[in-house]
């Protein structure tokens, strides 16, 4: 299934995209796409009624496909080619960081450059959405805790990240820096999350073209690893790293400017488009 949250920003309603590409309403079936709805039993309930849902004729845009996200967990340097472009050795354990949930945005919302920003960068990522809570999850059991996947972009302000007194969290958490969507694709609809192609372009120039097969740590490894340090809850999102081609890795470095257009796609997970604007 492809689950969405559609409608006016801040008052999105739950829905799904059917096999023909039609938007159907889940209003009355569930309150939102989050919480217990993301558990195996919750998704099974939606699956049973999916063919009988009413069509939504007028679309007003999509928000992030998951409601009530408790935490956004980023994984740094998780692609071999990205480690190479950064001239860094492959990590022996996943590098983790957090992005503020206030950074969440929809798949077509503007990317707002924070005041004083000079080095806003892009990182296309496979997002893993937790469906069943757990802590100290064994790797063989990890996939049972995954509700599904979504396209995400980890936007970063590199000066804030590296040169403003440490704590890269500063450069990762500006409003609009964590767009997700357009939809959450349930786990059963993605045969192998480690065989997906990722592409990101800036002003129609392709900057990133990679595959999740290049990930150093797999989805089960990441879910299990993160759960050793914190409990995972329904709606938590793990951004699993980015392939080569980020602006910081270009020679010379290339960063986003107001007026730029960023587009991104992942196989089976839809597309995003963002116009870059300056903060007011």
Mind telling me the CATH class of the largest domain? Alpha Beta
CATH architectural type of the largest domain? Alpha-Beta Complex
Count of separate DSSP helical elements: 5
Topology as a string of helices (H) and strands (E): EEEHEHEEEEEEEHHEEEEHEEE
Shape: globular
Helix content: 10-25%
CATH topology of the largest domain: Fumarylacetoacetate hydrolase, domain 2
Residue fraction in strands: 25-35%
Question: In total, how many domains does the architecture comprise?
Answer: 2
How much is the radius of gyration in Å? Answer: 18 Å
What is the CA-CA span between the terminal residues?
38 Å
What structural class do helix, strand and pairing data support? alpha+beta
On the 0-100 scale, what is the average pLDDT?
A: 96
Describe the structure.
It is a single chain. With 280 residues, the protein is an alpha+beta fold. The model has no long low-confidence stretch (mean pLDDT 96). Helix content is 12%, strand content 30%. The chain folds into two domains: 2-52, no CATH class; 72-278, Fumarylacetoacetase-like, C-terminal domain (Fumarylacetoacetate hydrolase, domain 2, Alpha-Beta Complex), CATH 3.90.850. Strands 3-2-1-13-10-9-16-4-5 form a nine-stranded mixed beta sheet, covered by helices on one side. Strands 7-18-17-14-15 form a five-stranded mixed beta sheet, with no helix packed on it. It contains five helices and 18 strands. The longest helix is centred in the N-terminal third of the chain and has 10 residues, at 40-49. The protein has helices at residues 40-49, 80-85, 158-163, 169-172, 219-227; strands at residues 2-6, 13-17, 23-25, 72-76, 95-99, 104-105, 111-113, 120-121, 124-130, 146-153, 156-157, 178-179, 184-186, 197-202, 205-211, 237-239, 261-266, 270-278.
């Amino acid at each position: 299934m492809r689950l969405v949250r559609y409608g006016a920003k801040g008052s999105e309603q739950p829905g799904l995209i059917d096999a023909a590409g039609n938007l159907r309403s889940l209003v009355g079936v569930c309150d939102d796409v989050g919480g217990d709805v993301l558990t195996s039993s919750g998704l099974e309930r939606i699956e049973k009624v999916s063919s009988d849902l009413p069509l939504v004729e007028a679309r007003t845009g999509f928000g992030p496909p998951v409601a009530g996200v408790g935490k956004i967990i980023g994984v740094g340097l998780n692609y071999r080619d990205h480690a190479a472009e950064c001239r860094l050795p492959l990590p022996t354990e996943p590098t983790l960081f957090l992005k503020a949930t206030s950074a969440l945005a929809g798949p077509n919302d503007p990317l707002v450059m924070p005041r004083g920003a000079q080095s806003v960068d892009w990182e296309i990522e496979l997002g893993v959405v937790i469906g069943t809570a757990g802590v100290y999850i064994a790797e063989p059991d990890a996939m049972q805790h995954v509700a599904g996947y979504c396209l995400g972009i980890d936007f970063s302000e590199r000066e804030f990240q590296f040169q403003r007194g440490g704590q890269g969290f500063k450069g990762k958490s500006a409003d609009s820096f964590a767009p997700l969507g357009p939809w959450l694709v349930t786990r059963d609809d993605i045969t192998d999350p480690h065989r997906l192609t990722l592409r990101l372009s800036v002003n129609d120039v392709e900057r990133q073209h990679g595959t999740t097969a290049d990930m150093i740590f797999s989805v089960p490894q990441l879910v299990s690893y993160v759960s050793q340090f914190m409990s995972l809850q329904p709606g938590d999102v793990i951004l699993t790293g980015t392939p080569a081609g980020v602006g910081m890795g270009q020679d010379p470095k290339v960063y986003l400017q107001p007026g730029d257009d960023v587009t991104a796609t992942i196989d089976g997970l839809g597309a995003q488009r963002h116009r870059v604007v300056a903060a007011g």
